[in-house]
Amino acid sequence: MEHENILEAKGLNHWFGTGDVKKQALFDVNLTLKRGSFTVLMGPSGSGKTTVLTLIGCLRSVQDGSVCLLDRELNGASEAELVALRRRLGFIFQAHNLHESLTATQNVIMGLQVHRGVSDADAQRAATHALGLVGLSDRVGYLPGNLSGGQKQRVAVARALVGNPALLLADEPTAALDKESAAEVVDLLKRMGAARGMTTLLVTHDNRILDRADRILTLEDGRIVTMEDRG
Amino acid sequence: MSRLLQALFGRLPIGWLQLTHNRTRFAAALAGVAFANVLVFVQLGIMNSMGAATLRPYDFFQADIMISAGDANSLSDGGNVARQWLLQAMADPDVVDGMGLFMANVPWDRGEKDISLSTFGVDPVKPGFIGVQIADDLPLLQVQDAAILDRLARGLAKDEAAAIRPQTPLAFEAQSRTLVAYATFAGGGGFGGDGYMLVSDQTFLSLFPARSSAAPDHILLTLGRGADVDTVVARLRSLISDPSLRIRSYADAAQDDLKYQQTRRPTGIIFGFGVLIGVLVGLVIVYQVLSTDVADHLREYATFKAMGYGPRFFLSVVFEEALVLGVMGFIPGLIVGTAILTLMGKITTLPLAMSFSMAVSVFIGTVVFSAISGAIATRRLAAADPADLF
Ligand SMILES: Nc1ncnc2c1ncn2[C@@H]1O[C@H](COP(=O)(O)OP(=O)(O)OP(=O)(O)O)[C@@H](O)[C@H]1O
Ligand SMILES: [Mg+2]
């Protein structure tokens, strides 16, 4: 039976550096993400939000404590296992990180092609569809250089969602956008997450996003200080 | 191209898209690869033509075994061989016939430019030792001071050479004698001389009074039907009591000469190095292009890593780029290389030309070395850490 919790982190500690410069960034972090939930992670700069996200996203090795993602223990997992797990996640970064040489469609296809056995025609269709969902039907053949900031971030959203990830991790995806674009992108995430039963963990400083959250976590100096459930 | 690569790699042709995104840089990269190719083609062309020129005079004769002085690395250098060894060799039951071969350079004053003819003295009544293209004319040499001239000799005009017939011979002064050319053959200027000439051994000795009929430059032997050359060579080695002599099959002698010219003579070594330098230039250019390209796209690669693409994906992207550069750089390289070789061949009258085998080996070399550069360039990928993206 699949757990109701897609993610369970217990007693997570993390350190950066070695020797004299060794510094603890996370202290006994416990956190669970319910399947289909929309969780917002807040906290001042340097509090460890990104560190939490990279640990959950299998981008850093877990040093101490336990992270159980999609029924797999990440502590002690091999690089190959981590890579395989990453394919089931969606990432949205602060910068769009699109490939400048690829068109919007091709960028989105990259989010799909990581799964073996997708035919070219299927990938093309899925990418066009995903771009339609983020409202970019008329921009499919554009290179990122010819898109606005908000449009680029929407392509990045389409790329993250096209593979139907179980968990979407987004780190301040709206930081580089103006107010309108930011609201648009967040609405999009919320709407599409709900439609697909996808779990979302989003790091933000943006207070306007809080209304849309099922749960709000606040980090301070590497510790979770408040946890507020809504709805 | 894009479609082809997509089918070949079973994914978006990212390497191709990435390379062609910056047109000027792509053009410069292709020009670099083409340049390296041209470099290799020209050096290889010269080396091949040197090889062809080295082997050329061996075609003028036919023999199974050649006996030469210990220091004779080619037909034209080294000391003499005493004629007595010819008589000794004839004692072997498998040796059917033998001939002394004389060789020296004959300067020919051609007015504005003196040329030097590599001249062979042969026995005019032994056509069995003479290459088929000349053998029919051999009896002409029985006349004192008769010659068969290389119609491709440098400095000899085409129509002048074509006019040479037994009925309309060409008389000319050389070594203070008047030689008469009654026929011609296709020799071809080499790296050592300007052309070739065949005369009888008697004429040769008149041209070079200091030489003795008892000491030709080489001894050629033919064997009876079914005789094993290596066995006879071994037998002759024990029969002939001068251990300094080189007793080899005729074919081995030619190959030894070729190897000597390519690996021991400065010209051969220089062009060999030229090939190496061309390969290195190509390697460095492709490495430079690919590693800058990897460095420029570290962020994108890190993103792909975060998305779950593994090391094999990145290797295949860089290989794809190497393949594109190799194939697309090769085409202009081949065209320019062929043009340069053809032009050089025209100017020097050397047998310089693009050959199919040369094109194929350079193409394979280009792709293989591009792939190696690509594999080295991917080491920079380790710097793409997806954890730094957030
Ligand atoms: N790669 C690293 N090497 C060393 N220290 C690091 C590294 N990454 C983060 N840190 C430290 O760990 C702590 C937590 O950093 P983290 O990036 O997780 O904070 P954050 O909450 O995401 O901040 P921000 O809101 O500015 O993005 C900080 O003190 C930071 O200096
Ligand atoms: Mg951060």
UniProtKB/TrEMBL annotation, chain A:
Keyword Transmembrane in record: no
Keyword Iron assigned: no
An MF annotation (GO) of this entry: ATP binding
InterPro entries listed in its UniProt record: AAA+_ATPase (IPR003593), ABC_heterocyst_DevA (IPR014324), ABC_transporter-like_ATP-bd (IPR003439), ABC_transporter-like_CS (IPR017871), ABC_transpr_LolD-like (IPR015854), MacB-like_ATP-bd (IPR017911), P-loop_NTPase (IPR027417)
PROSITE patterns, per database record: ABC_TRANSPORTER_1, ABC_TRANSPORTER_2
One GO location term (cellular component): plasma membrane
Keywords, sorted A to Z: ATP-binding, Nucleotide-binding, Transport
SMART domains membership: AAA (SM00382)
Protein name listed in UniProt: ATP-binding cassette domain-containing protein
Native source organism of the sequence: Pseudotabrizicola alkalilacus
From TrEMBL, chain B:
Protein location: Cell membrane
Positions of transmembrane segments: 26-46, 269-290, 322-344, 356-377
ABC3 transporter permease C-terminal domain sequence ranges: 274-385
Superkingdom to which the source organism belongs: Bacteria
Keyword Cell membrane: yes
Membrane topology value: Multi-pass membrane protein
Protein name, entry field: ABC transporter permease
UniProt KW keywords: Cell membrane, Membrane, Transmembrane, Transmembrane helix, Transport
InterPro entries linked to this entry: ABC-4/HrtB_transporter, ABC3_permease_C, DevC
Pfam families registered for this protein in UniProt: FtsX
Gene Ontology cellular-component annotations: plasma membrane
